[in-house]
Every structure is written in structure tokens, then in C-alpha cells.
Amino acid sequence: MDIRYTAEHEWVAIDGNQATIGITDHAQRALGDLVFVQLPTVGAVLARGALAAVVESVKAASDILAPLSGAIVDVNPATVAEPALLNSDPMGAGWLFKIAMSQPEQIGELLDADSYGRIAS
Amino acid sequence: MNTLELPLHTLHVAAGAHMAAFADRLMPIHYPLGILGEHRHTRAAAALFDVSHMGQIRVQARSGELRDAAVALERLVPVDLLSLRPGRQRYALLTTSSGGVIDDLMIANLGQCFYLVVNAARIAEDLAHLERHVSDVCRIERLTDRVLLALQGPKAVDVLGELLPQASDMRFMDADSVELDGVPGVVTRSGYTGEDGFEISLPADHAAPWVARMLANPLVQWAGLGARDSLRLESGLCLYGHELTSEITPVEAALEWAIQPSRRSGGARPGGYPGDEVILSQLSRGAARRRVGLRPAGRPVREGASLFDAASGGEPVGHVTSGTFAPSAQCPIAMGYVPIALATVDTLLYADVRGQRIPVHVSPLPFVPPRYYR
Known about the structure:
The complex is a heterodimer of chains A (121) and B (374).
Chain A: E1 2-5, E2 10-15, E3 18-23, H1 25-31, E4 34-38, E5 45-46, E6 51-57, E7 61-65, E8 70-75, H2 78-81, H3 85-88, E9 97-101, H4 113-120
Antiparallel strand pairs in A: 1-2, 2-3, 3-9, 4-6, 5-8, 6-7, 8-9
Chain B: E1 4-5, H1 9-14, E2 18-22, E3 25-30, H2 34-44, E4 46-50, E5 55-61, H3 66-73, E6 88-95, E7 101-109, E8 114-118, H4 123-134, E9 138-142, E10 146-152, H5 156-163, E11 175-180, E12 183-188, E13 197-203, H6 207-216, E14 220-222, H7 225-234, H8 276-285, E15 289-296, E16 306-308, E17 318-326, E18 331-339, E19 348-353, E20 356-363
Parallel strand pairs in B: 1-3, 4-14
Antiparallel strand pairs in B: 2-3, 4-10, 5-8, 5-9, 6-7, 7-8, 10-13, 11-12, 12-13, 15-18, 15-20, 16-17, 16-19, 17-18, 19-20
């Protein structure tokens, strides 16, 4: 699976026409203990850059923007019940939502691991 | 402004603290345990906070009679200092001529002097205010090169009692000059977390051994400013710049309890402090708005959010001054100001969070029961 990143500290795992989105380890460290997650509605159609989810730590709220245009096809309700999943396993059990891409060419504008590593270091 | 390092900076860095600027100091915001863990540890055992950024001020009467200093300080606070016995401290407010608050502070009677602990961001204003109004009667001295530690939590007395037996005999708001390894320090049984605990002031170059002794006890963990903020909010305590400003009176802030009967109408020394007309009038007739607790439904509501009395439309009726997720109460909590007609417990209001109206209910304060050792 191809994993890309955004400058807003989201990871995007590409699998065919579908992308799974979460926050990076760097993001969860910066936010601290997550206490609240709001997910998009399955079926919602979002343009790239639209507000998709909200995560909040004790310290602050953070918007999660859609990194790609498309329709929400799945969400991870476990993160709503247990926001700490974003701290303990941000790239795994803490995934947030899946998008069926309407403009797959947007993938090319996401960051690869090296580029993101320079931002997050 | 230059950011200064705390005297114990290297200890915090060695403990893995995340440091950030607060007022003019580089402060530990949290340690590897994290804000939630540090908060819960404070409520369960004992946490050690380095609050050396706070201002420490000694006020002595030029005459040598402490009573003269009490009379002079009473010109600035709506608080009874003449009845404050040696070894006791009181919460106080420096008021503006319109009844607002310059700062909130602790004033302890140490027998020979009054010892004041003020907010870091207000030190310059407080010193200037004291100089202007009481330097005719008092010598005012900012204590620098000192460390202020707060040991907070239900086990704090067990920890400090082993190291300083007289601490166990103190009660809430006691304040004593003590010898710490032969150097003069101050210990008070108070804090800013809603828990039992102590604040310990001592010379900076004598602080590290005390920190080491306290941390040697497995009950004790470092906690940073992040947990301090969530603890005080859960305990319904005001933070200057948020719940208290020069535009907010003590009565609006629901701090009537800090104004003793002797300084009210009909008391032995009514008024006689800046803004007394406004404050006395509000004490008898009430204020138009009031600080309340708020319980947002579902998600946290942050400082600055407008409050409405309808799910859509209308003008803001108030605003949120602090908000977070409460690690002990396990729900979002906030404080804010609302008109007195909407200040009744269980009143349904709505907080605007980026265009979305979140239902919030007016709640009693504090959100968790205080555990002071009275």
C-alpha cells in the first residue's frame, strides 16, 4: 500500500481507488492526549480541503481536512468511543475515515515519506 | 521580551518536559506522562509543580508594626487583613477604581511581614500599584532567586510530612516561615488544583535537594502547566486573563466569599478600596452578569466561544472564558459569563463552535468536589 502525507500532518494510505486517512505520529505527539473525535458522515461528498473531521486534545481542537476529493465510504467509530487510539496507534487502529477518490490525480500532490519527514522533524 | 529559564530548568529538561514560554518564562507544559496522566495522578496521589514563574513579594511596615501594613494593604483589597492571624493566608483581589480586578493573589501573614504570591503576567502591574499606593507605609520587596514548588494531591501530606514533620500539623490556608536545610523558606497548605497540598518557597540554590527528596517518593510525579490548568478549571478556580480581568468585578466573578463582612456595607471597615462603590452596590443588589460553570454536550468548547440562548439566530448573550475536557469528571467542561437571568443551574444555552451551536447547560461549580484539609 502506498502511504502519502499532507503538510497538515495527516497520513493517506492509497489502496486502488480508496484512501484511508488518519493523523501522523508527529501530530498525535504535538496534540497530546486526544479526548474527542468527530467523524464525517458516510456518504458525504467532500472536495479536497473541506472539513472532514475534528480531533481535540486537552490542549486544543484541530481540524482534519479532506486530503483528496471524493465520497466518504467508511469511518472508524472506535476512535469516537476511544480517542486515545489516535495516541496509541495513530497509523493503525486510530485511522479516521476512508474516501473513494473522485480525482485520483490529486495523489500526485501529496507528500512522500521523505518530504513529510523533513516537515515533521 | 527575553524568555528566562527557571532555576530548575535543567531538571525539567532531564525529566523530559515539553517546555514553552509562559509570561516571560520557559515553563514545563507537560512531561512524558502527558496532561491527562498528570492530572489524574494529582487527584490520585501527589504531583510536583514548579511554579517559580509566580511573583513573590514581601510587604513590611516601615514602622515595624505589621498592623500598619495591614491597614495600608486594606486600601487596595476588599479583604479583611486586620483579622488575618500570623500563620494564616487569605485569597485577595487588587481592584481597579471601577471595581475590576488588577490581579488575584494570596496574602499570608508571616508574623514579621506579609508574603504575597501574584500571577506571573501581572508582577510588574502589581508592584507598580503597590509602590504607588502603600510605599508611604510599607517596604515592598520582590523576592527573586527563589523557587516556588507546589506539591498537590491527597498524598501530598504523607510525602511532605516525612520530610518536614510540621507540615502535617498545618491546615488549609496555614502559612508558616520554616527552616529548610537551615535556610529560610515559606510553606503554605494551599494550591491551585482543588486538592489538599502545599506550596513551598525556598532559595533557588537550595531547591534541587528538596525536589530530589520529594521525587524519590514513588507517590510523586512531575506535573506541568497543562495539568495545572485542567485541574484548576475542574475545581472552578479563576485564572487571571480569563475569568478575571480589569473589566470584571469580584461579584460578577462569583467571588463574594473572598470579601469578608467587615469590608461590606454595615461592617467594621466597609469599602475603602478602589472600586468600592461599584462592589458594595453589586454585593447588595447583585451584578448584571455572573461567572458560571458550563457543561457542553459531547465536545469541548474553548475560550472565546460566544454563548447564545437559542439554537439558531439571535445575538450572543455571553462568552466562554475557559474550556477543556475534564480528565477526572470525564466530560467537556467550561466557565463563562452570562446574564444573571441565565445564570441558574440547568439553564440551556448554546456555544458557537465555528458555526455549530453546541448545547451547554449551566452547571454548579466546582465540577469535582474540593478536598482541602480544613
